[in-house]
Amino acid sequence: MGIRKKNKNPPILSHDFIIQNHADIVSCIALLFVVGLLFEVTSHVAGLFITVQHNVTISTNAAFPEGPEELAVNYFHHGPKDMATVFFYMLIAIIFHAVIQECLLDKINRKMHLSKIKHTKFDESGQLSAFYLLSCGWGTSILFSENLLSSPVNLWEGYPHTLMPFQMKFFYIWQLAYWFHALPELYFQKTKNEDVPRQLLYISLYLVHIGGAYVLNLNRLGLVLMVLHYYVELLFHVSRLIYFSNENHQAGFAVWAVLFVIGRLLTLSLSVLTVGFGLAGAEQQGPYLATGNFNMPLIRVTVLGGICTTQAFMVWKFINFQLRRWREFQQQLRRPAASKSRSRRDRGGVNGVNGALGSGPDSPRTRKEKSS
């Protein structure tokens, strides 16, 4: 995507008008929901979009010096009202995208003078780096607060994990909202027709895997795999940003290549361990839709098949990427050799090595005419 040049007076409600002002339009729509919270008549509807839905209050007893006291803890589960919340935060993601693009990436692009192709890749990596950085920090804090990294057994013990703390529920809402926002961004960013299928496949894989983990109550496994994948992707896009600023800095890609392979192995290992062994050996076998238990052979095979297929696809893309970089490196090695041989031929032509055109030291000596 190149630097957007705004026309002075685009026709109202035309494509150019919507694309140039989409952030302002979306901000006004989001502001309507926020203003709706101020009035009693509309607060219930506005709260449906803004606040996290499907909460459950569980009472627990805790011992205090004064005596036992009952505490109320709020947990959340998924439900149909989440679609409204995802829609609102999709609007926030569009605003978030526009702010990063206009306030940061466009200013950097003007100074770097990149080609159109590199410009598009730079914007893509800049947007995803910001998102992955936020998601990695947020997801890691949830993993430590919920003590999910202490033992792999925590990934399947007590399944179905229908109840989630607020941070985990909101994390999934934000993830779904961000990847749904990427669909209208294809229009807002004027994505080329040949790039749309690749982007749609990319977005669909995220939505299917994140949504599947959320709906099937595999939120613990999904969170671990998401954070693991995001760390690897963050390194790749940061390395690409550094490469565009200075093409001599390519060490980040080597580190990313190693971590990519490790990430794929860990993803497959944790998935097989959790779904193939942990859930298969659990006492509660499903399906029981009322309790959210989807632990049955067909679903387990489908989940594992989807994960393995996606990992195989990513490895195939990774191999193609490495082969392309290797071919580019080989071409760069051939260019100096070709330029040296060309310079030798040019010098030979000037000095008359292949003919008697020159008068250099390698040219045949011309006969002096006898003076009469």
UniProtKB/TrEMBL annotation:
Its main location: endoplasmic reticulum. Keywords: Endoplasmic reticulum, Membrane, Protein transport, Translocation, Transmembrane, Transmembrane helix, Transport. One of its GO terms (biological process) is SRP-dependent cotranslational protein targeting to membrane, translocation. It comes from the Eukaryota. GO terms for cellular component: endoplasmic reticulum membrane. The chain crosses the membrane at residues 86-105, 126-150, 170-188, 200-217, 223-243, 255-278, 298-319. Residues 120-329 form the TLC domain. It is found in: Endoplasmic reticulum membrane. Residues 349-358 have a biased composition (Gly residues). The keyword Transcription does not apply. InterPro entries: TLC-dom, Translocation_assoc_membrane. Residues 335-372 are annotated as: Disordered. It is a multi-pass membrane protein. PANTHER family: TRANSLOCATING CHAIN-ASSOCIATED MEMBRANE PROTEIN 1, TRANSLOCATION ASSOCIATED MEMBRANE PROTEIN. Belongs to the TRAM family. This is Translocating chain-associated membrane protein.
